[in-house]
Structures are given as C-alpha cells and as structure tokens.
Amino acid sequence: MRTQGDSVDQELVRAATDVVRIRSHGDNHTVAAAGRAADGRIVTAMNAYHFTGGPCAELALIGAAAAQGVYELTTVVAVGDRGRGVLPPCGRCRQVLVDYFPDVRVVVGAGDALRTVAVAELLPERYVWADHQLDAEPPEPPDAG
Ligand SMILES: [Zn+2]
Predict the structure, then answer these.
(1) Is 58 a catalytic residue?
(2) What is the set of domains in the chain, with CATH numbers?
(3) Nearest to 117 by CA among 42, 8, 31
(4) Which terminal residue of the chain has fewer beta carbons within 10 Å of its beta carbon, N or C?
(5) How far is the CA of 91 from the centre of ligand 1 (A)?
(6) Domain named CMP/dCMP-type deaminase: which ranges (predicted)?
(7) pLDDT (tens place) for every residue of the chain, 145 residues total
C-alpha cells in the first residue's frame, strides 16, 4: 500500500476495517473507529447513528477508550461499511479530537493513498474553548511584535 507523509499505522486501519466488516449493523452502526493508545493498545468502537446527533465512531471511541482506562490516543482512523474505506472525521469530530488529544494523528486518504496527518492540520484556525471562558485570560494576539 502506497503511503504519503507519516507512515500509516496499518494494524490500526486493519482493526477498524475488521470491526466494521464484522459488526456493522443496518443503518445504526455503519462506521468503525480504531485508536492507538500511548501504551500501544488498540481500542475500537462503532458509531451509534441517531437523527438527534448520535455519536460518530470517533466520539464513541473516546468513551470506549476511557472505559478501558485509555485517556490518551496517539492515532485514530475511521472506516466505513460497504467497502467505503477510510473516512475523514467530520467537522464536529475534528473539534472534539483536537480538544481531547491536541497531538493525535489521523489517518486520511483513500484506497492506496492513505496518509497520517496531525489533527490540527485538519482544523486550521480552530476554536479553543478554554480561551473563551469568562474567567480565562484573553488569548495572546498573534504576532503582537
Ligand atoms: Zn464525526
């Protein structure tokens, strides 16, 4: 498999691919996510679709990881059912991932051109929630000098 940029965690991609192949179910569970923990473990989860905004697989993954005592993920990937392959995180998931794990890497791309990128690259000019709380110091203006 040809890759670009950072080397792709193929074991992680296989884990998500296997979960979605074996466990996808109707319209409710259509995407699997896999995350690499800092200690090397792999955690997996599936989305829980609901029209009110049921969590994407990436968000379910954060909770599944916590349930196993994993509070830091280094790499994340999502894979769609019906042979859709690797899926990029949606806008909400990009924001959540960057807030939970600012240094997490995300596998993106299609087919034989998978690559791994920093989540911050997927969300330039991101909103930093902590900077906008009433008791927070205002953020430093960029390039004040
Ligand atoms: Zn999402």
Answers:
(1) yes
(2) 3-132 (3.40.140.10)
(3) 8
(4) C
(5) 6
(6) 3-130
(7) 444 456 899 999 999 999 999 999 999 999 999 999 999 999 999 999 999 999 999 999 999 999 999 999 999 999 999 999 999 999 999 999 999 999 999 999 998 899 999 999 999 999 888 888 888 777 677 775 5
